[in-house]
Amino acid sequence: MTPSGTATTQPRNGITVSRSDGSSGRPLRESIRERIYARIVSGTYKPGDRIVERDVAADFGVSRLPVREALRMLHTEGLVEMLPTRGVIVRQLSETDVADLFDVREALERLAFRRAAEKATKRDIARLGRLRVRARRAVAACDEAGLHESNEQFHDMINVFAGNALLVEILAPLEGRLHWIFRQNEDPQRLWDEHEELLDAITAHDAERAERLAVEHVQSNRTHVMNYLFGER
């Protein structure tokens, strides 16, 4: 077992390789982070709930070290708090927290979508096309979880296709909270319908339209999420 909690194997050629949760090759802490994150966004762990390291380790059948590392990752992303008296708890985002997040998201996404429309390669557009197919299948199958995943992947792809390493670096610690925001919506199909328009603008390399639609998309999502979380205003 490595210090990170990732098990190792020794193949016949003498090269040590790491493994985590089967054949994925990812560090175990990342897999555990995703599983805890899924419980947060699904509401299994509610705001204010304690996440007990020992219990999670027993539940997932792993040692406590990779769980501790996963919780630190979620703390860095702003999804949990580490309190001296209570331990790790799921963070309760206030109305101000969510509003601030939307302000930052709008500023960054208008840049991301403009640059993606300007810089997207044929390969990038092909990847978006495949995502479109998966999302439409999720819509047809009434697969809400699959549609949420497609919506998240769409934004993640755009951030990369924008070709701005600093933008990706700035967004990295916000990613968990942004994905959580994407899920605070009773109608993921409406989000994907707006994504379809954005995808068309990027495919056409229409940067001005992509930027305008991105702003409208964030503002529309802001209204729905704020109403969903805090009531009609």
From TrEMBL:
Polar residues composition-biased segments: 1-23
Superkingdom of source: Bacteria
Database matches in SUPFAM superfamilies: GntR ligand-binding domain-like, Winged helix' DNA-binding domain
InterPro entries referenced in this protein's UniProt entry, alphabetically: GntR_C (IPR011711), TF_FadR/GntR_C (IPR008920), Tscrpt_reg_HTH_GntR (IPR000524), WH-like_DNA-bd_sf (IPR036388), WH_DNA-bd_sf (IPR036390)
Keyword DNA-binding belongs to the record: yes
Key words, A-Z: DNA-binding, Transcription, Transcription regulation
Gene Ontology MF: a single term: DNA binding
Name this polypeptide is given: Transcriptional regulator, GntR family
Keyword DNA-binding in record: yes
One Pfam short name: GntR
Region: Disordered, residue numbers: 1-28
HTH gntR-type domain location: 26-93
